[in-house]
Amino acid sequence: MTIEKRIEIEWPSLGLSVTAGLDGRNRALAEALWDALPYRSLQGHALVAGHHLYHVAPVHELVHLHGEDRVDRRTVPDGTVFCSRLQHLGIKYGELTEPMAATPIGRIPADELDTLVQAGREVWASVYSTKKPIVAEVRRAGEAGGHRLPRLSAQDAWADALIGDLHRETGRIWLEPPAELVDLHRGRVASRAGSFGTLLTTLLFVNGETRPLGYSCYGGLVRAALEGTPLEPLRQVARGMTATPAEFLGYCGLDTLWAFTRRLHEGLDRIDRTEDFVALMAHMAMYVNCLGGWNLHLFPWEVGDHLRQAAPAT
Predict the structure, then answer these.
(1) What is the DSSP pairing of strand 44-45 with strand 50-56?
(2) Which of these three, 107, 140, 173, is where a domain ends?
(3) Are 193 and 103 in the same domain?
(4) Is the Cβ–Cβ distance between 265 and 243 less than 8 Å?
(5) Same domain as 128, residue 75
(6) Which of 1, 43, 169, 236 fits 136 for a cystine, CB–CB 3.0-4.6 Å?
(7) What are phi and psi of 88, to 5 degrees?
(8) Banded pLDDT at 314 (limits 50, 70, 90)
């Protein structure tokens, strides 16, 4: 494949970096990523699928753009780079077990795979045990780094004001862990959520509600709006799908999310333009996806180290 453009992915705290050639696959996704560069993001690691790095990319378009070239990511070469509707930039660096269809945009060259594997090991330690955040910087090859968080706008003044507040809060927590999640993971739970004083149960439920709220609910609302669903059913679905998880998360300590959700519900009937609805839901998606990334990083995965897969029967 012809390499059209190159990006650099650096982990400054590790002193490691790799390059990736964008090779023309899923051009719309690659162009959306390219246009958003440079940026920085908390680096994450797959917890179920295997040898896979991913982070939330501040690219609103990833939530809804369609990738035509879809592959089983288990079968592609190590070093393959993907963009996904989960708003992720992902990189395969070894064996994967999850049979997930994915949309590749490029590949890291073979002579840089050892560096990629080293980064993968360091990030796994960060997520699983040390909890020391590792930031990834993604930039155009040969150009300066930096960071910016895109802001969409709405014609309606109320919607635009809420978007502005969401944008500021997302920017505030993009590279710094939200105080509410830090408190929760340290056992400071004002509501006393967690039966008989337990904490792990609450953390599990918070993780289980946050990820689908961003990935599926808000991302799905953006896609449904752009695919032509009328505003009235969209408003009904938005209220029905977001109220219960957001209220529960507020009970568990995510007061800011619950406050944003209440504001959203109070003003939904004002929105009479699909473009305004899309902009607002896209910012809710990015905010919740950011919360989800931090929750995955802070979660004490190492407490389950004694729980291991059974060996296959012989």
Answers:
(1) antiparallel
(2) 140
(3) no
(4) yes
(5) yes
(6) 43
(7) -110, 145
(8) low
Q: In angstroms, rounded to a whole number, what is the distance separating the alpha carbons of residues 204 and 231? A: 34
Q: Do 64 and 182 have their domain in common?
A: no
The pair phi, psi for residue 120, each rounded to 5°, is -60, -40
The string over 257-292, giving b where at least 16 C-beta atoms fall within 10 Å of a residue's C-beta and e elsewhere, is bbebbeebeeebeebeeebbbbbbbbbbbbbbbbbb
Overall pTM > 0.85: yes
Same domain? 170 vs 295: yes
Burial (CB count <10 Å: 0-12, 13-18, 19+), residue 20? buried
What CA–CA distance (Å, rounded) separates 107 from 185? 36
Same domain (yes/no): 225, 287: yes
Give a yes or no: residue 307 inside a domain. no
Classify residue 310: in a domain, yes or no: no
Please report which confidence band the pLDDT of residue 312 belongs to, taking 50, 70 and 90 as the band edges: confident
Provide the token pair at 122: 């360091």
Distance CA 121, CA 116 (A): 9
Average pLDDT of the residues in 200-227: 96
Amino acid at 1: M
Is the sign of the CA dihedral 224, 228, 229, 232 positive or negative?
Answer: positive
- For 222-280, the pLDDT digits (tens) are 999 999 999 999 999 999 999 999 999 999 999 999 999 999 999 999 999 999 999 99
- Tell me, what CATH number does 54's domain have? 2.40.100.20
Domain that holds residue 34: 5-140
Domain count, the chain: 2
Question: How many angstroms separate the CA atoms of 130 and 14, rounded?
Answer: 14
Token digits for 266? Answer: 């109070």
